[in-house]
Queue: 3 jobs
Job 1
Amino acid sequence: QVQLVESGGGLVQPGGSLRLSCAASGFVFSNYAMRWFRQVPGKERELVARISADGTTTYYGDAVEGRCTISRDNSKNTMYLQMNSLKREDTGVYFCAAGCGDYEAPIDFWGQGTQVTVSS
């Protein structure tokens, strides 16, 4: 059974940091490019960052460029998103997603999401 399970969300003050994790199971993680998305009620789901299957290529959305770092540990079947200098507008539900193959492969699997709230 394929599973993507996000964790690490929570309430943080503006300027703070969070590290999100996405634990994968049920598929060959190292064959899949991975992505982080976020969604705010009333807005479209937004791509936050993505990483190639081997971890050598990354991309960041304009909204988080310079403040976030995506990484993965294929030995642990886990992807991470380190978020620093958090802003109120970073609030949302963060989802991880997996696509088999290259960097821009279509998404095959989604996680259930983890809530991030940036507020004082």
Job 2
Amino acid sequence: DVQLVESGGGSVQAGGSLRLSCTASGLTYIPGCMGWSRQAPGKEREAIGTDINGGRTSIRDSVKGRFTISRDGSKKTLYLQMDNLEPEDTAAYHCAAGRVLSGGMCGFNIWGQGTQVTVS
């Protein structure tokens, strides 16, 4: 089965760091696009950022400078390095994979179950 498995979530104090991982398994191809999103209780899911082909990343302005997206050499594991965490970062973090659409946007078709991050 094709699946994305996130790990690395947990509880941390404000100012701390966490590194989330997302590994794609069961894929016979390297996803052109992988990305992270998050959803806090009572709020809509928001995109955090994407990695295209393991070389081009983008990240939302509100976490720029604190969060970094990267992909490993196999290009099937995506990371989210989160530093200087704030209570407002508390959410379920999900990764997704898909293909690159015309115009450079990501078309996600595989989603992970999510990993919880709690900042106090």
Job 3
Amino acid sequence: VQLQESGPGLVKPSQTLSLSCTVSGGSITTNSYDWSWIRQPPGKGLEWMGAITYSGSVYYSSSLKSRTSISRDTSKNTVYLQMNSLKPEDTAVYSCAADRSLSRLRLGLGDYWGQGTQVTVSS
């Protein structure tokens, strides 16, 4: 299974970030895998942002829930992240990851990872 993130590298403060995670080699609706977005700000640890399960249920980090939306397009085998009201402190490498355990994903662990995409929030 391969995951590939895509999206803008530079976003202005207060704008909305939209990222895609395209999955190949496996379906996002089968095999009991859950799909998460995880970010890592410079010099800091991994932060779990949220997840969408193989059945379509969505879960969010309580600290980001008000600004984050995770969705999917099963016809494109793609998972999406939208985050609004961006701040400079949202600058990070954003990655998608997959695992059969949502608990593991919450801890920043996963069987499969994308390479990550750098997002910089700056005017």
